[in-house]
Amino acid sequence: MRTKIPFAGRCLWLCAVMMSISVVIAGQLIALQITGDGGNNHGNSEKEIFTEMIPAQRGIIMDRNREPLAANLCVGEVKIERHALRDINQVTYGLAYNLVCRSEEWLQTDDRQKRERLLAKKRCELLENARKEFTPEERAEIHRLSIKDGKAAKMLLEWDTAKCEAYYLEHDKLVSELLARFTTPGNGCTQKYIPLSAAEIQDKIGQYQKEKQIAQAKARGEKPGVSIAHEFYLVKDIQPEKAEELKRALDEARIKGVSVAVGQKRNYLYPKSLAHIVGNVSQVNESGVIDVKGAGGIEAQYNVHLSGSAGHREYRKNVRREIIPHLDDRYCAPQNGLSLQLTIDMGIQTICEEELDKALRELKTDVGCVIVQEAVSGDILAMVNRPSFDLNTLEVITPRGSFEHDTYKDRDGKVDNGERNYACQTLYNPGSTFKPIAGIAAIDGNPRVTRNATVECGPFMVMDKKISDGSRHFSGRMSIADTMKMSCNPATANIVFAYCGKERYLEYLKRLGMFSPVPVTLPSMFPGASYKNAQKASRLDLATMSYGYSLGSSPMHVAQIYSSLATGGVKVKPRLVDALYTDSGKVYDTCEAKEGDNVRIMERRTAKEMLLALETVLNPKREGFGRGTGHLAAIPGYRIAGKTGTATKLDPKTKQYIKNFHDASFAGIFPIDENINWEAEMAKPKEQRKKVYVIFTVVDGVAGGGGSAAAPIFRAIAERLIEHENIPPNDPAAYAEHLAKKAAQAQALTQNKR
Fold this sequence. Notes:
Distance between the termini: 136 Å
Low-confidence stretches: 34-47
Structural class: alpha+beta
Number of strands: 27
Number of helices: 27
Oligomer: single chain
Mean pLDDT: 85
Shape: elongated
Strand content: 15-25%
């Protein structure tokens, strides 16, 4: 039967169907080229979108005079992506370019499209050369043996393993030679980087030894003891301009599998100072972006403020990982971090470091600390700890010099990397620097008790234990002032027994903050002594507690006792951060004390009585019971109140006290004003307030005591602080005479040396 549609019509219909099929196939191929999934990703369109994180600039840390302490440096890092270095489709780009870029055809033309055609042709030749040729029977056998792993079967059918390995080796060599030009000191890397030759770089990225071990283990039917690193950083700390040059060189050479990330690195301008205050950072990499995160000190405590918020850029890539511009691409700018201004004064910090190191060398110990605080405002002006560490190199810093990380050992033979903040984290017996608490508890709220109230000062027994002053012997009655001056243990214990009692004494310990952390904005602060354990104290414990034993403390806790006396009885919250600033320089937060931060804990009369009592500690005259234990801290012309402390150390192994092995300390307040009114001072503008300085120093493990080992350190620091801060003397004539004597002594010493 004849069809109703003529032959010509049937041909047209057939052509139309074939054309439609061709259009559909072409559309699918285009979608596959762009999205990699043939357009079948309607429910997962986000797979084609890539997000690049853009780090925010970390805020700067400054001292009180806006001297930068921590800033940022731009750096680059070279990242190896080995999966691309072992992909035949990827490595042939670099190999093809290396072969054609010197050819006559390439050099004779500047036409980009023509060059790309030459490159594509050469790459096709390389790929074709690497293909395997199989008979139909061989292909069927490979399919049968690899039926469980279709991808592996496809690879076996498509590529010649030996030729691929030769390509990989040649490409590794090509990459290594290029990288070697950019990864040596003087050519981009910092001086601390150990340079690698092209052969060494090739060995690192190729991991040939590991490949051999894995192959041998598999041949024996064993589990390999090593694994291949598929992504790792080859080089860090490349100068940013060199990193950009390397990026361009990699792109030009068509090298795949090597990426260069450019970000920021924290740089410390005073790396050997304030390690425990400023802290350091750890480096993190997110989405190929180098970023830093606070790992200690202010860097950690204020990490959220310093870090800011990272931005991001969204873009699309095709199957060849080429970026495709798109209208929906989004860009979100990063929000830079806040900058911090500390209360630390680098001039005072340097003075303290120099004087402490000098004293520790003379005393033949490596351990100690100095704290300098302006009492009225609570500003911490300096905090020195030894040992410490270099923020940039992590070298351990001691009075005797620097040691490489993990090489310095303490007196017990343990590795010490200087990471402990001695001033804030050390638990030690404060010794006699604790004695003013007994006087405070006795006088406060009791008008009939003054610094002249007396107690028995001779040795006595408590629970079959003798309370005495060791080799020193006092008898009769002694005033509270003389108890401080002579640092008498029995008299101090009797002050607690006669005028306080256990509950009242513990109450004042609590008021002074001995049972809670000092509210300094630093991580890992000593939490304070246990109040529950203190409540269980026996009469003997109470006696020894009064003169600085049986209750552990940190140097920072003890410093707050004297700061509270210097302010006339107000416990002021220590300030370490003075202000926060935005990226544009505007004040974000003044960090002023909030309601409840500063609390009056004793009457002004109490503070006055104790200041006058502690002033006698520095009396050089042999009157009454003798000269004060802190007479070596006295500076003629200045009124100074202070207290020595000497606590015998325990042997960590035997738990026995060691003779002539002490924690020696001295706490000093100057220039004192026993009538200071803190509330009135705080009502004044900041620059018009009285300046009263508290200096507390501790030296660990010395033969001498607080009067002979620590008091001279206070004096040396105080004399230089007077010049640095231009602190006027209470008695100008006496100070002028003192300076004249010092000048004459220096001149005589110079003449003797000649």
